[in-house]
Amino acid sequence: MKKLNITLVALLALASVSAQANVANAEKLVSIYSAVAKHDNPDYAGPTAAEGKFFFNRKIKLGNGKEMACASCHTANPADEGKHAITGKAIRPLSPVVNAKRFEDFDKVQEKFTQHCKDIIGSDCTAAEKANYITYLLTEKTPTAKK
Ligand code: HEC
Asked: Which position among 12, 24, 91, 105 has the lowest Cβ density within 10 Å, counted as fewest Cβ atoms?
């Protein structure tokens, strides 16, 4: 099957966005990844936040026997600041609703997805997984209250 040129599609889509770029970009990315998922599988029913949440928290056994999830670094609440599970370094919140810098640069998003999905899952995530993931992040708007 012919692969969609996702970068080109994305650039065309993102070119028209300006103000509120973070959330609007994230929403565009969801539609782009959904379109690719639909292209790959005509029965694809669209992204859901519930599947994205499951994916985000799902622990996977790594080659070294340790278990890790996206949440291991990005925390269980993507509206919160994360903490790198290995280096301990702070990570700005992933949710584009609270962090305007997220999903700004499509190339960076693609690169991070590929890199982190390979680290954790062992291969790149599918377009359907990415669409679910961002759909879920968009629902996380409230940082956990500080104790
Ligand atoms: C070992 C720690 C760690 C784990 C586990 C991890 N990440 Fe990340 N993630 C990071 C760091 C560090 C950054 C970059 C920090 C920054 O840009 O502020 C990041 C950034 C990202 C970004 C970039 C968003 C943007 O536009 O800036 C995406 C997308 C992402 N991660 C997806 C994932 C996914 C999907 C998983 C699970 C499969 C995952 N991450 C697991 C540490 C991690």
From this structure: 12
